[in-house]
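Hi, here's the filled form for the chain we discussed.

Project: internal
Contact: R.S.
Residues: 280
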Amino acid sequence: MKNMLRRLKSLRSLKNKVVLITGGSQGIGEALANEAARRGAIVVVCARNVEKLELVAKRCMILSGRPSFHYQLDVTDPDAVDRVLTTIQHEVGAIDVLVNSAGVGDMVAVVKQKYTSMSKMVQVNLLATMYLSRKVAKQMMDQGYGAIINIASLAGKIPTPHSGVYSATKAGIVQFDNILRMEVADYGVQVLTVNPGPVKTEFFQKADPTGNYLAMLPEQLQIEPEQLASQVWDNVGHKTREINVPAYTTALSWVYNLIPGLGDWWIKRLFNYQQDKWKL
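And the returned structure, exactly as it came back:
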């Protein structure tokens, strides 16, 4: 047990550690890759866009002074996931840290949500995260240490209009991590759930082209991706279970669960939620 804890603590320094990041071609995943590289990690990024992946991998190699790798991957294809993980094992080595950062969103009212969009969010945000976590957790349990970082969302803890399916997938990650954490803790594996508020990336340009959703949120809730990445890596190798960014949102989540009726009233006022304005 002491040896496993010592190995887990060794992840506080990412130097020469193998870090696999899905969704690594842009947004939060790219910021996490850059910061891991600055800390000396051997970064492995996966996503569907090969051109963007190549640029990220080259930048990581410059930042870290170590090899970096990139693999094209559709995280919703379990066979492709299996192939890429096997390739990484042979070409790079055992994974020390897994970051599930791939995610999609579609911010519209539940009654207007298309089935294809609902299915895609569940497949990418939740099922892919669970499957990758499952596969890599087994390897980490065998090696006696590791860290799994799953990017959930503040939306999974505090509901907001027009994010029903997206929020459900992120809430699913929170609960999945709570159980996975119990199952792997005795093997020296950390499971860290990250719940950021809105991050200043291209995510909302695709999830909400109208700009209505982001416009309703206070500026104080919006986070720079570099800030988030630094905070994530600062908590790896520790006993940290979950981080909420900004930190004060922990209190907001607690209050909402304690008095949900009041929370619903406040959130609807914050979003100026009226059916005619949101064009239900």
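Let me know if anything looks off before we file it.
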